[in-house]
Amino acid sequence: MESRRSVVRATLLAAAATVACGTVAGCAEEPGPDPLDSDFRPIRISVNANSEEQRILGEIYQRALNNAGHGAYLSMETVPVDHHRLHRLNELSGDLIVGCTGELLNQLNPVQAQRLSTEWVAATTGATQGELKNSGDWREKVYQAMVGSLPGNMLASDPSNAIGCDDYDGPPLPQHIVPVYRKPMLDRGDRLILNKVGGTITTADIEELVKKARREGSVGFAVTGYMADNDL
């Protein structure tokens, strides 16, 4: 009998405490999960300040996102060029980077990069330089290996047909332009914009934009006409 009274007393006390917390401002709330990145925070695109190619691609992706109503801005990296740029996503000092499939795979998984490089060179021996760079099957193979090596908090858009990263000095691999981003920061609409840019731009476009930026002394000026011409 005493045991039942104890249970009833404890239940009543707990109920009273709940009512009191509903009326007294001093009661502390239970801690909840940490909030995710805000859906409304602008996307920070991290680019290598020393690379004209990087600055041009970053400018194009930034403007395309902004023109579609998705806020984005550029953050210039001043670190050495051999720095592992994906660290900027892990360190939350960037939300999106623009890299190349082979280069990123070599950073993420050098053993697999070397294996695929050996296979790629053997499979394409005797091919022209253009065939080497633009083999659709190998573009997908290296891209899928790169995506499969990404940490769980990162994703990539579709690979572009455009080739970049001429200063890459690792195992020979296809180097297709591809943005990589932190998962919480981009929604489906953002990804569609990235894919539209990647599907529009070509290697020749990048080369011409680099020349124009040097000639005009302005990346922004060089990119303006390209954005209008390609409905970005």
Verbal overview:
With about 230 residues, the chain is an alpha/beta fold. It has a single domain (about 45-230), classed as D-Maltodextrin-Binding Protein, domain 2. Helices cover about 55% and strands about 10% of the residues. The chain contains ten helices and five strands; from the N terminus they run H-E-H-E-H-E-H-H-H-H-E-E-H-H-H. The protein has a five-stranded mixed β-sheet. The N and C termini lie far apart (about 80 Å). Mean pLDDT is about 80; it is low at about 1-40. It comes from Corynebacterium mendelii. This is ABC transporter substrate-binding protein. Keywords: Signal.
Strand and helix layout:
Blueprint: H1 2-23, E1 43-48, H2 52-67, E2 72-77, H3 87-90, E3 96-100, H4 101-108, H5 110-123, H6 129-134, H7 136-149, E4 154-156, E5 177-182, H8 188-200, H9 203-216, H10 219-229
Parallel strand pairs: 1-2, 1-3
Antiparallel strand pairs: 3-5, 4-5
Helix pairs in contact: 2-8, 2-9, 2-10, 4-5, 4-7, 9-10
